[in-house]
Amino acid sequence: MPLSPLEHDRRYGELDQVIRAYVGQPADDTPDQPSRALIAYLRQTWHSRPWALASAEQQLREYADNPPGRLRLRLGEFYAIPDVGLPEGEIQQWLYCLADHIRGSIEEGAVPEPAAPATHWEWHARFPELGQFLGGWFSQDMPDEFDDHEAAVDDYRATADAQLAARLVGELHELLALGLDESDYALAVAELGMEVDPPAPYSPSGWLTLVTEQLTAPRPDYGSPVGEG
Question: Does the predicted model carry a pTM greater than 0.70?
């Protein structure tokens, strides 16, 4: 029978995170050099969930030691490695290579320096609420759903939990603190799901600043209804 969510996460949860880091990226790791995708995974995980690295190394190695047969894959009892662009016969050694790099990073305390995200996975891992906001409120359907960008932001503010909105503000500040070029901010919002342009005359960073101000502005207080108080 298929794995339960609990069993899947217990056995393959962090392995799955490593593999997801390769979406849109080449699996070109070598014994001497980790790939761009693995460096991004290491950077984000070291700075947010360092305890998960040991689980990743263990799950990668155990999966490589005991690759699933066709029957168990068909029954859904194993995690199926998505296509990463490698021949099937090279997957096992690739998994060992990833495990070795992660183990070396742990044992040597080799923590990648803070930097702007380098991959699609890293953008979403670092800015999860911003990804929800941009992908949910600023998709290509946004002009059909809202009068303008300001109305979309107001709708998010009115419907999102206050704690999530506060998290979004923090992520906006963090993104703006990266000090990227405007072309890189345009790439950032696109990676995070925005499918419409910022409103004229704003640049991407100028609009992100405006959104931050809009989300943190005091809500209007219209007082108590007549007859109350």
Answer: yes
Scan for tokens 């959104």, then name that residue: 211
More confident residue, 72 or 133: 133
137: amino acid identity, one letter = W
- Three-class SS state of 1: coil
In 3D space, the residue among 105, 1, 2, 93 whose CA is nearest the CA of residue 52 turns out to be: 105
The Cα-based distances of 153 to 28, 90, 91, 137, 200 in angstroms read 40, 47, 44, 8, 16
Burial tier of 15 (Cβ tally within 10 Å: 0-12, 13-18, 19+): buried
Q: Closest Cα to residue 199, out of 190, 208, 187?
A: 208
Distance between CA atoms of residues 46 and 109, nearest Å: 10
In DSSP terms, 33 is beta-bridged to 30
Which of 149, 127, 154, 124 minimizes the C-alpha distance to 138? 149
SS3 of 115, please? coil
Give residue 68's pLDDT band: very low, low, confident or very high (50, 70, 90): confident
Residue 117 lies in a domain: no
| 113, part of any domain | no
Q: Is 141 found in the same domain as 199?
A: yes
Residue type for 105, please? Answer: S
Spatial distance between the Cα atoms of 57 and 59, rounded to a whole number of angstroms: 6
Do 135 and 208 fall within a single domain?
A: yes
78 within 8 A of 62, measured Cβ to Cβ: no
Question: Is 180 part of a structural domain of the chain?
Answer: yes
Average pLDDT over residues 13-28: 95
In a domain, 151, yes or no: yes
